[in-house]
Amino acid sequence: MNAKDVNPATGPRILVIEDEPTIIEFLRTGLGYEGYQVTIAPDGRTGFDLAGHQSFDLIILDLMLPDMDGFDVCRKLRERGNETPIIMLTARQEVADRVTGLNLGADDYITKPFSFDELVARIRALLRRQGKHPEQSILSVGDMVLNAETHEVSRAGEPITLTPTEFALLELFMRHPRRVFTRETLLNRVWGYDYAGDANVVDVHISHLREKIRDKPPRLIQTIYGVGYALHPEDDA
Hints:
With 237 residues, the chain is α/β, with parallel strands linked by helices. 38% of the residues lie in helices and 22% in strands. It has two domains: 4-129, 3-Layer(aba) Sandwich (Rossmann fold), CATH 3.40.50.2300; 138-236, Winged helix-like DNA-binding domain superfamily/Winged helix DNA-binding domain (Arc Repressor Mutant, subunit A), CATH 1.10.10.10. The chain contains eight helices and 13 strands. Strands 1-3-2-4-5-6 form a six-stranded mixed beta sheet, with helices on both faces. The longest helix has 14 residues, at 116-129. The relative contact order is 0.10. The mean pLDDT is 89.
């Protein structure tokens, strides 16, 4: 099977070696939004060949793969001298599997189901070690300031207390002003690809977030009817 480049972004190049369609789409969309160049390999042998012939900044490697499992891919890459950072994905919970993966040369390990924010934080940490991802931790839109490292938010100098979900929504909007997010995308990004509840949970949390950040008409977080939500800085109004 052939690998596929899935977005025209110009950021760091990430090779995703994964065979589950739901997770492929979740990572393809989410990482593309974050500006990463994503290449998908649907099996271990394709991923191994790609990693050996192309240059990537990071590899996301599933453990359970057809043709060649994640342990073999990792071991063979390291034996070949490939030092690209590797994050292993697996549904297995056993400590022995995590130890095996790390001993074979993986740099990090995340267990399914996982939150997108956690994965991105680990990606950024590994890329920072390589000097390839200058992280912007303090975001501002108008008189609102968000500190991603300390999880603090203020508006006009007044601190605002948000739940983790509300904070994740606000950070996503502030990192991508004017970008329209569908409810499905917000569910995937904030609640996770395995969320099986009602999509109306998005509207409820957006309503609470607007109230806490004193977002009155004309709103910063605008409803794009029939589509979703987008943050528009006050100078757009």
